Structure formats: C-alpha cells, structure tokens
Amino acid sequence: MTASPVDTATLRRLPKAVLHDHLDGGLRPATLVELAAEVGHTLPTTDPDELAAWYYEAANSGDLVRYIATFEHTLAVMQTREGLLRTAEEYVLDLAEDGVVYAEVRYAPELNVNAGLTLSEVVETVQEGLAAGMAKAAAAGTPVRVGTLLCGMRMFDRVREAADLAVAFRDAGVVGFDIAGAEDGFPPAEHLAAFEHLRSESVPFTIHAGEAHGLPSIHQALQVCGAQRIGHGVRITDDIVDGKLGHLAGWVRDRRIALEMCPTSNLQTGAATSIAEHPITALRDLGFRVTLNTDNRLVSGTTMTREMSLLVEEADWTVEDLRTVTVNAVKSAFIPFDERGALIEDVVLPGYASAL
Ligand SMILES: [Zn+2]
User: Where's the active site on this chain (predicted)?
Assistant: First the structure.
C-alpha cells in the first residue's frame, strides 16, 4: 500500500467512528472556565488557551494515576443539571465538527452526584443534552449518532449500581457498560457480580484493560468477566513474540474482539512510547480488529482528526487504513447489527469513496 498524502481538511471530512471517549475528559476549555466561575470552582488558570496547555502538560506525566487526577476540574462543573446539559450538548457538536458520524460516549454517573442529583437524574440529563446536540448537528447537515456507555469506577463500591443503571436505561440511549479508573490494583474480576448481571440481562460491555496492567488484566476482562471489547488493550503485544500469537492474543484476534486504541493517551500515560511504534500499527498488520479513539479530547489535547493525522504522518497510515479502523469501530459498536450495517453502507463507505 502506498502512503497517500492527506491534508488535515480532507481528514476532517472523512467519516469517523469513536468507541472510546470520556464525556468528562472532553469539555471545551472556554466552557470549563465559564462553568467553574458559576459554581465557584478554582481552576489552575482562567485563560482557556492556558488551561488547554495546562491539561496537556499535566496529562503528559507518563502516569495513569496523575492523568486521571486532572479530571477533578471537569467533574467539578458537571454536578448540576445546567452543567451536564451544556457539556453533553457541546460534546456532540464538537464530534460532529470533527467529522464523527458514530460515537459511544462514556462516563461514570456516580461522579456527578455531589450537588444532589440522583444517579437516574444524571443519566436522564446527559441523555437530554446528547439528544439536543444530535438534533442541532443533524439540522446543521452533520448528523452524528451517539450511544452511551455507563461506567462504574473500579476502585469504588458502586459498580453494581452503575450496572443496574445501564440495564434500566438500555432503551433510553444507553448501549453498554464499562469500568474506568486506576487499573493497577483493581482487577476487573473484583466486579464479577456486576458483569454477570449484565450478561444475564444481555447488556454488552467493554472493560479498560491492558493499559497500566498487562495480560492478566486482559485475560480477566475477557475470560472471567466476559467483555465483548477491550479498552486500550495495548499490552496484548506481551502475548505476541516475533509475530507469533499466544493463546490469549489469538483469542482476541480470532474472535474479532475490538481493541479500543487511543494513541495519544497511551503516550501520555506511558502505555506506549511513540506514535510510530504504537502497537496499533503492528496489530493492524497482524489482522486484529483495531479501532482508533481519542479517550479524552481536552485532557489529551486531541481530536479524531488529529489522531488520524498523527498516524498518517508518523506511522505511514493511508486513507484506506483509516477506512478500515472506522469500519472496524462500527462493526464492533454496541448498537444493533442492522443499524451498524446501514451506517457502514450508507455513510462510512460513501464518505471514503469520495475522498479516495
Ligand atoms: Zn478510557
């Protein structure tokens, strides 16, 4: 395959699908400044550009725990109905602007209840904001479909409650579940009861695994908990020696389990060393179902267009490669099979055909 030079404007127009993006990691800096002033929360700086730079620096620590600590500021402004409505609506509009046609947004409702909203009110409010964003994006000629993944925080004790919420809201915009938070020291199997409940209710879920911790975490997520996708999963490469797959890596590739890979985020937390060497390229070549994601757009200072651009410039990716990961993402989305097929046939493939 020859590398086709692609400019940023072309990349921005390409249809994109993102499976791994945190609502509380993607606020607009200016919105964060405004909402913080309203609720009396002190930020490191009140200049939006400086704030964006502060996030990028703080997130570049090479440590997942410090990376996660930056979320205290975004979460501080996401405790009220007003804050949730605005951040959810802008979330959708920003993705539409970036050329995203399908997204799964994730967040942990238990982190939004400090001002008295109930867990259910949090979910209802976010859905209302997302719906408003989708209506505006469609009216502007850039329709984007957004499904919600509810998260439980793996280091706290409300994961089962979050799973119950996912079941309760499955017909109201919630399409699946995840656990988030510090991976090291909090293995997925500690929340087995929640995952068994989701499986018995046929609610699909993904699990953050193989980011800060290695193969045992991925093994537990898949073979003990029964995850249908893996968040990050970069450490699956530990089970591949000289291109030969071990049993777990073989399971991931052969069962077509999507890896939700987030190159910039992985560099920042130390899970990968460079874009050029990021495992997404080697795993693509080995036939894994890799997908490309942003993880946290504010915290990592990125967008889907930027992630694509980095792979094109630093890892010799082509537009065909970008089409492949986009189709992969839609294939592994947690929405019904017929809707995934329609998105691929009617939106993704025509969009790439006109760019190629
Ligand atoms: Zn994540």
Answer: 211
